[in-house]
Design a protein that fits this description.
Chitinase A, domain 3, alpha+beta, two-stranded parallel ribbon, 14% strand, 2 domains, 9 strands
Length: 332
Amino acid sequence: MAYDESYETGPAGPVAGLPFVEKSILYALNLVPGEKIVLGLPFYGRIWSNSGGYPQGYGISNERIEQFISTYGGRVVFDKASQSPKATVTIKPWDTKPLVGGKALAPGTYTIWFENEFSLKGKLSLVEKYNLKGTGSWSLGQEQAETWDYYKYWLNGCAFEDIRHSWAKEQILQAYVKGWITGFSKESFMPEKTLTRAQAAAMLVRIMNLDVRKHSEYAFDDSKGCWAEEYINTARKHGLVSGVENNLFKPDSPISRQEVAVMLNNILGYSAQGSVPAFSDVSQTGNSWSYEAICALSQKGLITGYPDMTFRPEYHITRAEMTALLTRVYGA
């Protein structure tokens, strides 16, 4: 239990400041190994009347605190020392008086120390830092609805801030845990950014668990010195990718839907039975080099088109779309 640094009847302060939580962990580690420690975190805050009246540190849920802030126009600041948020809320004489602990709050100004996404993430990072078993909480039902999104990501070591509202967030998390994808930084995946040919090659090599080496004899002239050079060379060695012309790969160019189809089918090796056109805008004449791959993957139910029955082969694919496709194909 790493909370109640500040408590009812005591002076106003954080419920579980980061230094307090870390100190609690270090004390526990002197007694038991980290893999036996479950870190208890608060899903609540405490409210104090600035005038000295009621309440003085009464506990209220994080969900209700957000309602307080929204209803009464509260001002929130983030205390750097404790890494905890603090809200100041003023209830005016004509406002509806909220009940706290069964008592209506008098008009006046109140200070609320609580937990939010940023403070909880800081504490969740300590689980990984000290190799703890996991977390518990007090108590279920007091958290905000979105809490479990970032809990799940962070407890799986995934700290991408920009995937929580992505349609592909589950697939991105699955692929990340499998080691198939990486981000632009620890906090950023950029799901809607266009995928490049180099990034696609790297994803395919990771998903195939290939031994990544330089393989200089398979190098493209324009991929030498590229961050993905070894991935691209390895992918070429195993027949996963090919160049565009004159021993060029164009690693930083956006990759199209038909190029992805060909790369995937290089791995899967499916053939198009009967060569039935899968989409109205895909033909043997217009898409000679990608036609069979598109048809084959469509027949297997691995790729889909748009509601108007088009595939739009020249359209670029996003990082989220590629990740979702890989998890669908390989059943992450």
